[in-house]
């Protein structure tokens, strides 16, 4: 599909409190276009709670409920049950949380909602940090990345939320990236038509958190996929299908770009290049990425 | 939409909920309409929904709310959008 086929309807109104170059609003616009006005959003504490802007105004033209950090999926379950009781089954319930609210704080509520077979879409936009509260480390922060709580670089690797979700054997789960809007649009349309719990994770490079220029958001997303730091795939009926560039990488039809291409543009990895290039750590990151792809090939090819 | 007369904690949708964010801008995107091939990449990638898509797929920019991030200029493959520094005299 082409960009031209995406509808023009806008449920996100300009003039919000988002940073310039924000990937979350980019993803939000595509989600709103894909699902349409018949939706309800549940937003826990995350950047989006700020993007909604201040009372008594909001920049979202759809019903939105703000809820505590850990309760996005629990809140969505409640809203879905309420709608079901009223017989309104044409409304899509969407829980929209950041990676902190999904990987760390909200995982218990999310796991519960998936297990209860709640009919909703859970969307996690993954910017790999707690960016709203001031760039703290989260479970999604990659190895050696600087945050305000890991000043010398993180010493642990990030966890694979996609595989934790797969263990719930839900009807549909997917990983997307803001740099591929057609792919993201298609995945959300697909999720909308299904019944049962759906999970979509969107890679969202955050300019102030990752320390890169605000005009490079899309470029960073593209590079994260091309270097193999992020994979685009769909999980349907217990089967994994890789999409786009990730599919070519999995089948080894193209060679991944070296991970250094991606991390040298980010200020959060600056300590690996200044004052002296830390070849050992760079190699470690590259080896870890290769290892992940080896595992993908073994399991999903 | 139903509006309540009593004060509630409900917020209502409004364009420019944080005010006219156009004054955050340092660089102004300027579109060369003759170069534009209507690929709509700037429209889909604009984080602020300030790139307006017309019926014939041509593009206009809403300078009241454009925050000047420069993503439109960066994703434009034929460089039809350029970023110019804002000046006091318009």
List the main descriptive attributes of the protein structure presented here.
heterodimer, A: 301 residues, alpha/beta, Rossmann fold, eight-stranded mixed β-sheet, 12 helices, 9 strands, 38% helix, 14% strand, B: 90 residues, alpha+beta, Alpha-Beta Plaits, two-stranded antiparallel sheet, 11% helix, 20% strand
List the helices and strands and how they pair.
The complex is a heterodimer of chains A (301) and B (90).
Chain A: H1 23-35, E1 39-43, H2 47-51, E2 57-58, E3 64-66, H3 72-85, E4 92-98, H4 100-104, H5 107-115, E5 121-126, H6 161-166, E6 172-177, H7 181-193, E7 198-203, H8 207-210, H9 217-226, E8 233-236, E9 239-242, H10 244-250, H11 259-263, H12 279-300
Chain B: E1 12-13, E2 27-31, H1 41-45, E3 51-53, E4 59-61, H2 71-75, E5 81-85
Antiparallel strand pairs in B: 2-5, 3-4
Give structural notes.
The complex is a heterodimer of chains A (301) and B (90). Chain A contains twelve helices and nine strands. By secondary structure, chain A is α/β, with parallel strands linked by helices. Chain A has one domain: 3-Layer(aba) Sandwich (Rossmann fold), CATH 3.40.50. In chain A, helix 1 packs across helix 7 (181-193). With 90 residues, chain B is of the alpha+beta class. Chain B has two helices and five strands. Chain B has helices at 41-45, 71-75, and strands at residues 12-13, 27-31, 51-53, 59-61, 81-85. Chain B has a two-stranded antiparallel ribbon with strand order 2-5. Chain B has a two-stranded antiparallel ribbon with strand order 3-4. In chain B, strand 3 and strand 4 (59-61) form a beta hairpin. The longest helix of chain B is centred in the middle third of the chain and has 5 residues, at 41-45. Chain A binds chain B through residues 3-4, 6, 8, 10, 12-18, 20-23, 25-26, 29-30, 52-61, 181, 213-219, and chain B through 9-21, 24, 39-41, 43-50, 53, 57, 62, 64-65, 67-71, 73-75, 83. Strand 2 of chain A pairs parallel with strand 1 of chain B, so a sheet runs across the interface.
């Amino acid at each position: 599909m082409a960009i031209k086929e995406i509808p023009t309807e806008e449920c996100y109104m300009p003039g919000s409190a988002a940073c310039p170059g924000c990937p979350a609003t980019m993803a939000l616009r595509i989600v709103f276009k894909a699902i349409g006005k018949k939706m309800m959003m549940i937003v826990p504490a995350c950047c989006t709670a700020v993007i909604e802007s201040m009372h008594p105004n909001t920049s979202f033209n759809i019903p939105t409920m703000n809820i505590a950090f850990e309760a996005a999926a629990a809140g969505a379950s409640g809203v879905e049950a309420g709608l079901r009781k009223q017989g309104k089954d044409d409304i899509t319930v969407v829980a929209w949380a950041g990676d902190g609210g999904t990987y760390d704080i909200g995982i218990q509520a999310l796991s519960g909602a998936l297990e209860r077979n709640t009919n909703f879409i859970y969307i996690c936009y993954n910017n790999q940090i707690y960016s709203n509260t001031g760039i703290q480390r989260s479970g999604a922060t990659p190895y050696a990345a600087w945050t305000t709580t890991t000043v010398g670089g993180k010493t642990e690797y990030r966890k694979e939320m996609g595989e934790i979700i797969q263990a719930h054997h839900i009807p549909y789960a997917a990983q997307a990236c803001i740099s591929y809007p057609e792919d993201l649009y298609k995945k959300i349309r697909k999720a909308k038509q299904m019944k049962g719990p759906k999970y979509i994770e969107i890679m969202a490079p955050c300019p102030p958190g990752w320390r890169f220029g605000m005009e490079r958001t899309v470029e960073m997303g593209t590079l994260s996929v091309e270097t193999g730091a992020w994979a685009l795939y769909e999980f349907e009926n217990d089967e994994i299908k890789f999409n786009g560039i990730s599919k070519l990488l999995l089948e080894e039809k193209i060679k991944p770009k070296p991970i250094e291409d991606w991390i040298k543009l980010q200020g959060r990895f600056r300590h690996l290049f200044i004052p002296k290039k830390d070849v050992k750590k760079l190699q470690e990151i590259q080896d870890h990425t290769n290892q992940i792809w080896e595992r993908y090939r073994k399991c999903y090819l | 939409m139903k509006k309540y007369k009593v004060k509630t904690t409900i917020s209502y949708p409004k364009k420019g909920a944080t005010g006219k964010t156009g004054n955050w801008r340092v660089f102004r995107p300027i579109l060369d309409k003759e170069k534009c091939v209507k690929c709509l990449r700037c429209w889909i990638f604009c984080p602020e929904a300030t790139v307006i898509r017309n019926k014939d797929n041509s593009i206009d920019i809403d300078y009241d709310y454009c925050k000047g991030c420069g993503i439109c200029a960066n994703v434009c493959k034929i460089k039809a959008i350029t970023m110019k520094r804002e000046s006091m005299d318009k």
